[in-house]
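As noted in the main text, all predictions were made from sequence alone. Below is one such record, for TetR/AcrR family transcriptional regulator.
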Amino acid sequence: MPKIIDHDERRQDIVDVTWKLIVEGGIEAATMREIAARAGFANGALKHYFSGKDAIIKGAYERSLHGLGERLEAHVADARGIEALEKSIRFTLPVQQEDATAARVLLSFWERCVFSPDLDHDYDEHLENWTAGYLRYLREGREDGDVVNPTSDEQLANEIITMILGATVTRVVSPAYFHESMLEAQVTDYIARLRRADCR
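Prediction:
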């Protein structure tokens, strides 16, 4: 009998290989030829599983997001409001080595987004969902009386995302400049600002 091929498993193998290649050498290292070779495919066989390189890169990116999302959900657990917000920010900042690895994949994805409208659209959707989560925590914080800063929730959420994205870039591009204590102090100061009505 012919061997039954699990297409979902093969697709995941291709994504895993692509992830490793990006971590090792960036987006340039993840050529279709090298992906196929590492995954044990003949040249051109990848087209049976993905429409092209962008689709494979998207899979590697989603792998990163899925792992982060699962760990974040477990970390925040039943917290709400400002407690959930602080836990989420501290967890999302790229402090650990695993976070640095995910950050390299993310930077590669950003680079690819510049030249691919489809990927750019996917990232816009991710940012919208990410912002919505912070807005929910801020709204709960105001309901609980913990967030009294007069700045709009939309601006506060955007500040958080900008801080995290900036830290992500720094973690990859200038690791010598990267200090965990500096990031921790920034989060502490930011949360304190949310609790003050006289601070913008």
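The mean pLDDT is 84. Helices lie at 7-25, 32-39, 53-76, 81-92, 97-115, 117-144, 153-173, 180-194. These features were considered when defining construct boundaries for the mutagenesis experiments described in Section 2.9.
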